[in-house]
Amino acid sequence: MISDHPADTHDSQLASREPPRAGERLIAVFGVGVVLFCPMILRLFDRGMSATVFGVPLLYFYIFGAWALVIALLAWAVARDDPRAVPTPPSGDSGS
User: Fold this and answer.
1) Taking a C-beta distance cutoff of 8 angstroms, is the pair 10, 65 a contact?
2) Does the model's pTM come out above 0.70?
């Protein structure tokens, strides 16, 4: 059903310009975390003590690097889009 009311078209235009919500971002970060810590991926980096990065076994280096990446992605996911934006109180009659 198509509405000719101008407010309806304005609302739909605003909805199309909204950035992804934090919940959607968190779901995406969860998916990235599942893939990064999947046993098949971990096996790629399990080379024993033969492969090291700065003296740290490759598997440990990968796990801590992936963990740091997930934490950084979580911080990004819950951060506000515009830190300068101040939430406005709902408009209404205060009774005065």
Assistant:
1) no
2) no
What is d(CA 86, CA 82) in angstroms, rounded to the nearest whole number? Answer: 9
Query: CB within 8 A of 25, min separation 6: which ones?
Result: 76, 77, 78
CA of 14: how far to CAs of 45, 57, 78, 81, 86, in Å? 45, 50, 21, 16, 19
pLDDT in tens, 53-66: 888 898 999 999 99
Side chain identity at residue 40, one-letter code: M
Does residue 8 form part of some domain? no
Q: Which distant-in-sequence residues (6+ apart) come within 8 Å of 29 by Cβ?
A: 70, 73, 74, 77
Residue 95 lies in a domain: no
Whole domain around residue 35: which residue ranges? 19-78
